[in-house]
Amino acid sequence: MALFVSLPWFFTGWASPPRSTNGAAPEPGATVSPGIADGVASYYGKEHQGKKTANGEIFDMNKLTAAHRSLPFGSQVKVTNLSNQRSVIVRINDRGPYYQGRIIDLSLAAAKSLEMVEAGISQVKLEVLDAKRASSN
Questions:
Q1: If phi over 0 gives left and psi between -120 and 50 gives alpha, with beta otherwise, what is residue 108?
Q2: Domain that holds residue 66
Q3: What CATH number has the domain bearing residue 58?
Q4: pLDDT > 80? residue 93
Q5: Among 73, 75, 93, 99, which lies 20 to 30 A Cα-Cα from 135?
């Protein structure tokens, strides 16, 4: 059972709903096979600034971090916006996304790097670069 924070949502762009602290099962068709996956990315920012992420650290929308349903915390993932080929490397520190059909939630800084803030969501390619440094959570 996922525990959701019950606060009003003040969206900037297509930001995601409140984070869960106990993770979520991967959505069928949106799992990451070893190395690479394609799907829809969204982002979250101001409404989560300063709150705890699923791995216990404080969310900073200005850092290059992301939420993923199943990748280990600390995993380094290269995210490429397929509409403009811009890429960014993020560190997984949270669980999500919780909208059906999305495979990753990016911090605002990562979304800006990919030039997807105005659109709110974007078709992306994920490449797992380093899961060795990841914790077992």
A1: alpha
A2: 36-130
A3: 2.40.40.10
A4: yes
A5: 99
Amino acid (one-letter) located at 10: F
Tokens of 36: 């690479």
Number of domains in the chain: 1
Residue with tokens 């106990």: 22
Structure tokens at 85: 């080929």
- pTM (predicted TM-score): 0.73
Asked if residue 135 lies in contact with residue 95, where contact means CB atoms within 8 angstroms, the answer is no
E strand intervals along 27-116: 36-44, 65-67, 76-81, 87-94, 102-107
In this predicted model, what pLDDT tens digit does every residue of 48-81 receive, in sequence order?
Answer: 999 999 999 999 999 999 999 999 999 999 999 9
Type of residue numbered 97: P
Closest CA to 89 of 77, 81, 75, 106: 77
Q: Is 84 exposed, middle or buried (CB count within 10 Å of its CB: 0-12, 13-18, 19+)?
A: exposed
Which residue type, as a one-letter code, is found at position 117? V
Which single residue is written with the structure tokens 């990753």?
Answer: 104
Contacts of residue 63, defined as CB under 8 A and 6 or more positions apart, other chains included, come to: 107, 109
